[in-house]
Amino acid sequence: xxxxxxxxxxxxxxxxxxxxxxxxxxxxxxxxxxxxxxxxxxxxxxxxxxxxxxxxxxxxxxxxxxxxxxxxxxxxxxxxxxxxxxxxxxxxxxxxxxxxxxxxxxxxxxxxxxxxxxxxxxxxxxxxxxxxxxxxxxxxxxxxxxxxxxxxxxxxxxxxxxxxxxxxxxxxxxxxxxxxxxxxxxxxxxxxxxxxxxxxxxxxxxxxxxxxxxxxxxxxxxxxxxxxxxxxxxxxxxxxxxxxxxxxxxxxxxxxxxxxxxxxxxxxxxxxxxxxxxxxxxxxxxxxxxxxxxxxxxxxxxxxxxxxxxxxxxxxxxxxxxxxxxxxxxxxxxxxxxxxxxxxxxxxxxxxxxxxxxxxxxxxxxxxxxxxxxxxxxxxxxxxxxxxxxxxxxxxxxxxxxxxxxxxxxxxxxxxxxxxxxxxxxxxxxxxxxxxxxxxxxxxxx
Length: 446
Description:
By secondary structure, the protein is of the alpha/beta class. The chain has two domains: about 10-240 and about 420-445, Glycogen Phosphorylase B (Rossmann fold, 3-Layer(aba) Sandwich); about 260-420, Rossmann fold (3-Layer(aba) Sandwich), CATH 3.40.50.2000. About 40% of the residues lie in helices and about 15% in strands. It contains 16 helices and 13 strands. A seven-stranded parallel sheet has the order 3-2-1-4-5-6-7, with helices on both faces. The chain has a six-stranded parallel sheet with strand order 10-9-8-11-12-13, with helices on both faces.
């Protein structure tokens, strides 16, 4: 029965018969996001763009999220249900202790006690709240799509009548490993291990999930190896760029020497230290060269230390909280976009820069070559963690306008062919229908 037919007969459309795996009826989708900031990290970007494109395909999408709440395209019909945490890491008072009257239940107490012991509680506590919320709404969704929460609360949702699909962008165990490699002293290593304690839970949950989506072949291999998920249960659905927003515009003037990069956090994974070191080398030949980082300026740590050592404080600008239009013009106006990461599960910044026609210098860390190419036709590729190679590629590209034009045009064409959000949404819906069919077969055997 369609929603329209249900309305005509007086039936509740939210409790209409669920679609089958081969049914092409629109789906009712619950998209879970324990952290949805679209200006800091890829998870919020994923939720915003995927939900919009799913709605444009005719599906009903309800995002269920915690702070920072995702920014959604509500004019496309996407709705947000707020499932608040205690927001313990908010600015300007991160790691705060809540007032007594803020506590609502045992999950809140668990969240605070985990933080007090140096752990990161949000994946677990959000999953518990989400399970409670969904259990109170039986029959309301055809499928639940978890965006890398991987908390214990998600286990067994199928028995409650909710087929489950989970996206793992890349295993957080990779972040943990790189941070431990970069940790200075036993105290720092102990702190890193304690913070990443939730990855043990994520490993256990991932192995029991019926269907895992990921964004690249590289991530698929890492999920199988690091998390122990059976490869036949992992499905690659590439994500992409908003090619209508991220597009070339000849009216935006090119700023001589501008290099732009995105670094949402001062962590080793992003490789920003190597880009700062490379910039120091580039400026010996090209004093105009300067870097704009989309992200928060660190007051201390490896990046701040490296800038101070090379006297680059005035040659590196950090911007945050800018609008989509401002971000696009920032990238359009750059002579080079750079992705210096040691590892990426996909790299949205690479796809978005290529979509604007801005030439790209990128490492070969993780899935970046899968997105950007590594043959010299669509970007200049360098090994991760190699400041000299980064400097050589940046110097070459800054000095060759013809090469910049060729790479920019080829990069745009690559994204249009392979990496758009509409393609991502269609591929995701295919996996939803497979999960619905598998859940129906399992239920029939009980």
